[in-house]
Design a protein that fits this description.
- By secondary structure, this protein is α/β, with parallel strands linked by helices.
- The chain contains 28 helices and 16 strands.
- The strands form 4 sheets. An 8-stranded mixed β-sheet has the order 4-3-5-1-6-9-2-10, with helices on both faces. It has a 4-stranded antiparallel β-sheet with strand order 11-14-15-16, with helices on one face. A two-stranded antiparallel sheet has the order 7-8.
- The longest helix is centred in the N-terminal third of the chain and has 36 residues.
- The chain starts with a helix and ends in a 7-residue tail after the last helix.
- 41% of the residues are buried.
- Keywords: Membrane, Transmembrane, Transmembrane helix.
Length: 713
């Protein structure tokens, strides 16, 4: 009988393996891009190897399924001794299908974000909502917590009865080993002790979401259009409540609207032209030079005995490329082409996320722990909660950067967030996320025209999706604060809320994207900055600051000496004396030119699309890197900006090799739609000299030197 059960199990798993291969072969939807062709033409052996590796998972499942199904088939066999062999095979196959279906519902209960984005709200999600709400928690506990343990106990008892003395000894040894491994944890409190017996150093926790705008949070005055049901609490109720006791800087800007470059600037307090990473597809030589050139805050705090860690999902994957002094990196890998391919293989074989999203799975297949679709905002939050609990036991001070992908395009939040702020009657193609064609984005040059043609109703839906993403991030933020409070760390932890950049959301003069131009109001360069300081009362500043000022501020607060090469300045003097606050000059540059957005009246330098600008470097972990011949051309084509309280000056290189300047008066034209350079020649000339000095000489000019009569400009 055993071999017949094994045959049924193998038939079931063989079907799923074949289905996985079919999904992998067809998941591109028939689109032929440079990179999809490259995967097949030049990395065929690697793809085959990854599919063979997945067979290990199937083999483990085959053994587990055989052990579980055997007791059931055996019991039915005893009731029907004349059962034909083919029925035993069919029964084993049907039992596997039943188990598989159970685990699918269990996944929808505990990890709904692993299923297709398009499936949110479909009928099978609603099955779990059928029981009355008053008893849903109890039913779920029985189904998903008690039932699996009861079945496992029954299976163990059955096999115990089948085994002889030697078999029972082996089973007992395995059970003891399993229980020991389940409860064993390193004795961190004994391994890591906080030196000294005086006052505890302050912990520092930075929390951010990629593309989170500084003006689109409740405490910044933003309220969504929809205000019924859960939407009535706004987009950020937890953040808003926390910010009431924080030091808030309403006008903070990043020097580049791109994740890798902006985070390097923030953590090392240097402009991109100083640290040397001017676009997101950096080469090994550029990364090595940057690492040798900068002194990141995490390195300084690690030298003082701090535990330093970067935790995040795919938007935090840049830390794999540039750790920036953090000793522990727990993020989703992203920029390696082979990681793309490996993730495609593992997710095509859905048994991997279904059965191996656990500690055993991470040990067997460590790469899945960092796959983008595995590491969701919920997973990041759970990891931070676990880390907080362990850190509280250790007593060691910490500096962590927790970084989410929540607000990044294509704005796909989980239920209920994706529909929370949208028009209930909307049924278009942007229902649960922006209908974003990545192949068109990396291989096309007319994306701006297509985005500009989007009807206002679709733009409104996209803004609602973004608000839902913010609300999901707000829930993650709330849980982290709750974990600090639960473990007694709240009043010894500086908490910083910020972001790498913002995003354009179809405001006047712009469409979608971030950091691609200084058109419009510049929302993609405006980020939140709020700092909770235990023992410090709430403060609020509307003076202009920069993300390069964050590291010096935290260095001041933790007693770290500021390195001389840092270009930002501490904000602690403002906190100690609010009357000392005055605007700081904002200098910025655009990012990698995925799109060369139009500027009225000029023609910009021509650059090819992303898939022609970049190459995959097999000697650099198969990273995407900018081709050597375009390094200078990309930098030379960048827009630059100088901004004061009243004025914004934008410099745009032209195809003729000249520089085109546009000046905007912010109090009367916040959307920056009317160039007033001709009306204010003195302002234009002063700001032009300062901006060109920053571009050519890499020197920042203080606002009081640009406008001696008014330091605020």
């Amino acid at each position: 009988m055993g071999w017949k059960v094994a045959l049924g199990v193998l038939l079931f798993l063989s079907f799923h393996y074949a289905s996985g291969l079919w999904r992998l072969a067809n998941q591109s939807g028939g689109m032929e891009t440079k990179f999809s062709r490259l995967a097949v033409d030049e990395h065929r052996a690697y793809l085959i190897g990854q599919n063979l590796l997945v067979l290990v998972a199937y083999a483990i499942l085959a053994v587990a399924a055989w052990l579980i199904v055997m007791p059931l088939v055996s019991s039915l066999r005893r009731k029907s001794p004349s059962m034909p062999g083919w029925r035993e095979v069919a029964l084993a196959c049907a039992s596997c299908a039943l188990i598989h279906g159970y685990f699918m519902f269990r996944l929808m209960h505990s990890r709904p974000y692993f299923t297709s984005d398009a499936a949110f709200g479909d009928w099978y999600y609603r099955i779990l909502d059928w029981p009355p709400e008053a008893i849903q928690a109890e039913i779920n506990a029985v189904l998903f917590e008690i039932l699996p343990w009861a079945v496992l106990a029954a299976v163990v008892v059955w096999w115990w009865r089948q085994c002889g003395k030697t078999g029972r000894l082996a089973m007992a040894a395995l059970m003891v080993a399993g229980i020991t491994l389940s409860f064993w944890r390193p004795a961190q409190a004994e391994l890591i002790q906080n030196a000294g017996s005086g006052k505890k150093p302050m912990n520092v926790l930075m929390v951010g979401s990629d593309s989170l705008r500084g003006d689109r949070l409740g405490y910044a005055g933003y309220a969504p259009e929809r205000k019924d049901g859960p939407a009535a609490d706004g987009v950020s109720p937890a953040i808003d409540a926390w910010a009431r006791d924080a030091v808030v800087f309403d006008n903070c800007r990043t020097s580049m609207g791109s994740t890798l470059e902006s985070n390097i600037s923030m953590m090392s307090s240097t402009y991109p032209h100083t640290h040397g990473i001017r676009q997101m597809f950096a080469s090994r030589e550029e990364v090595d030079a940057m690492n040798a050139r900068v002194t990141p805050l995490a390195r300084l705090l690690a030298e003082k005995g701090y535990d330093t860690a970067a935790v995040g999902d795919w938007c935090a994957g840049f830390y794999e490329l540039a750790p920036l002094g953090f000793e522990d990196i727990e993020v989703s890998s992203f920029d390696s082409f082979r990681i793309y391919m490996s993730q495609a293989v593992f997710l095509s074989h859905f048994v991997v996320p279904l059965y191996f999203d656990n500690e055993l799975g991470y040990e067997l297949f460590p790469q899945i722990r960092s796959f983008a679709q595995f590491v969701t905002p919920e997973v990041v939050t759970e990891r931070v909660e676990d880390r907080v609990a362990a850190q509280a036991a250790s007593g060691r001070p910490f500096f962590w950067h927790v970084f989410y992908s929540s607000n990044h395009l294509p704005f796909r939040a989980a239920e209920p967030y994706c529909r929370m702020f949208a028009d209930p009657s909307y049924s278009g193609k942007n229902a649960t996320g922006v209908d974003f064609d990545i192949d068109q984005f990396i291989g096309g040059t007319d994306v701006e025209d297509k985005w500009s043609a989007l009807p206002e109703a679709e733009a409104q839906q996209i803004r609602a999706l973004y608000d839902g993403c913010t609300r999901q991030f707000d829930e993650c933020f709330r849980r982290i604060l709750a974990a600090l409070d639960e473990h007694g760390l709240k009043e010894n932890t500086i908490v910083v809320l910020t972001a790498d950049h913002g995003d354009d959301l179809y405001e006047p003069g712009v469409t979608l994207g971030h950091g691609l131009s200084f058109n419009g109001a510049g929302h993609s360069f405006h980020v939140p900055l709020a700092i909770y300081l235990p023992g410090q009362g709430p403060l609020r500043f509307d003076e202009q600051v920069r993300t390069i000022d964050i590291a010096p501020t935290l260095a001041d607060l933790t007693g770290v000496t500021v390195p001389p090469e840092w270009e930002g300045r501490s904000l602690v003097p403002w906190i100690e004396d609010p009357e000392a606050a005055h605007d700081r000059p904002y200098f910025g540059e655009t990012q990698f030119p995925f799109i060369q957005l139009k500027v009225p009246g000029i023609e910009r330098p021509h650059l090819p699309p992303m898939d022609e600008l970049t190459v995959i470097d097999s000697d650099f972990n198969f990273q995407f890197v900018l081709k050597d011949e375009y390094r200078e051309k990309v930098v030379e084509a960048k827009q630059r900006c100088l901004r004061s309280r009243e004025w914004k000056l934008v410099c745009t290189p032209t195809i003729e090799g000249t520089r085109h300047f546009t000046l905007f008066h912010l109090p009367t034209d916040p959307e920056c739609l009317r160039d007033v350079a001709g009306e204010h020649p003195q302002v234009m000339e002063r700001m032009r000299r300062a901006l060109e000095r920053w571009i050519d000489e890499k020197m920042e000019t203080p606002l009081e030197a640009i406008f001696p009569e008014s330091a605020g400009g």
